Amino acid sequence: MTRYCVDPDRNELTAAWGTGEGDLTTRIAVLPGGTDIAASLRLARALTQLSEAAWHTYTHPASAADSLEPNSEGWRREQERQAFSEVTKAITQPNLPQTGPVIVSYSPLIESAHQVGRALHTLDNPDLTKAVLAETAIELAAVESAELGNLTGRAQQAVLLSREDVSPVQVAAADHLLEQDPFGPAALFSDVDPTAASVAAAHWLAAAAEVAADASGQNPTAVLLEADDIEALPHETPTLVLELLDSGASPNDAVTTLVRHAMHVADGLLPDPTALREQLDDFEETLAEYAGDEPDIEDVALRLTPLDPKRPARDLLEDLLAGIHGCWLLHSEYDELDNKEEDDTENDEEREAEAHQHHSRARFAQLVRAAATRNHDRLI
After folding, report:
1. Separation of alpha carbons 63 and 66, rounded Å
2. How many whole angstroms separate alpha carbon 255 and alpha carbon 290?
3. Of 249, 376, 262, the residue nearest 316 (C-alpha)
4. Rounded average pLDDT over 127-153
5. How many angstroms separate the CA atoms of 53 and 50, rounded?
């Protein structure tokens, strides 16, 4: 989301947002001399809340809900997204205190807009109101742009957010980047929605696991466990994704299920109590095998989600790319390269090792591209 601030030294209202490579800032308006700082801060806080509510419609779209029936979660999300058209009116005609309590909207977006309007009413500056309305239009347009898969301009902040659904445009963009570099170029983190990038990365991880399995004789779902013996890897989550794909799930379903589960945990919800109960039962049985008949689990922390709930999509993307790297490690242990050109030179061992690694990665990437192309239908 965009964060709004007051610079008391310059008497300016500013906006700042992340891009994946750092934060950008811009000046929204110059505040007149003598403007009450407390009132200005209330305006900045309300604008930040408005941005948070607007981007929440992006990260929690109605399309990711189970139902759109009246009064369902999907219906409420759809109503909140449609409220974009009411924001300007709420800012220019806010609910003000009359003889009784202020009327409060059920919509977080609209209520934030009313708070912006009340702060502007207190400041009573037409030029500031005009600047804030223009800024609000830019922010809402950024959300709409991100929904369409266009993460340019202000919409680039979407690369820092986890989303319950994905844009096909963004999945295609991530797939193209991985085709250029199956190990994962930096642009995956700066230019692409991380949930969509994870969907594409899951597809390429499956291709990499197939290549590693062919070379090692291992089952594709077990290659990362063996690769972990070569180099320490965050193998649990990518292995889970490989198992989901092996059981018939699509990359889209596997990724969005994991990300959505972690987002619900971050929201303070328990998405699947039955699965948690089974997890606890399995955990108690495991402890009993090593600690007797009465396992002590009071001091043991149990993760509610395999992903970091503060940044689930980016955490998943990092793990999937680490999984592709692990597949290369295993493949390089079994694959025999023709190193005649290296043998004919008198390079030292370090240069030879570097050349061998370069050839190994290039050969692995070529094989992974072929496997990803053969199975490209699973990404659609």
Report:
1. 8
2. 34
3. 262
4. 97
5. 5
Query: Are 69 and 172 contacting, i.e. CB atoms less than 8 angstroms apart?
Result: no
Place of tokens 């009071």: 298
Alpha carbon separation from 343 to 334, 335, 353, 355, 363 (Å, rounded): 20, 18, 12, 11, 18
Span 131-138, average pLDDT: 98
Nearest to 194 by CA among 310, 305, 312, 306: 312
Distance CA 51, CA 113 (A): 10
Distances (CA, A) of 177 to 174, 295, 368: 5, 48, 14
Instruction: Check if the beta carbon of residue 210 is closer than 8 Å to that of residue 232.
Output: no
Q: Answer yes or no: are the C-beta atoms of 362 and 368 closer than 8 Å.
A: no
How far is it, in rounded angstroms, from Cα 369 to Cα 211?
Answer: 10
> CB–CB of 143/155 below 8 Å?
yes
Q: Which two tokens stand for residue 256?
A: 């969005």
C-alpha span between 224 and 242 (Å, rounded) = 10
Strand 23-30 versus strand 3-7 pairing type: unpaired
DSSP three-state, residue 242: helix
Reported as type and span, the H/E element at residue 240 is helix 236-246
pLDDT tens sequence across 59-90: 999 999 989 999 999 999 999 999 999 999 99
| φ and ψ at residue 24, rounded to 5 degrees | -115, 155
Please give the model's pTM, rounded to 2 decimal places. Answer: 0.88
